[in-house]
Task: structure prediction
Amino acid sequence: MDHAAAEIMAGGSTDRGWIGLWPVLYAERMPGGMRFEVSGCGFIDGCGFAYSTSGSRADITDPDESDRYEQLDGNWFFWVSPFD
Result:
């Protein structure tokens, strides 16, 4: 996952079928890192993982979104995007 995060943040392709053991719906660069949604993660809500270059949730969180981030380890977060 670290390798894929580094590639994506460096401008590499966000079109990925898998990142690590996770089937990916989509991946995206963010100002302070990147995130990807895992296929089949949630029943209604979307969810996946986010990487923050600084290890701070503030660098990957948009204050206008209702998305939730929970720190896992180091710079990685579990990310939930609630169904609207």
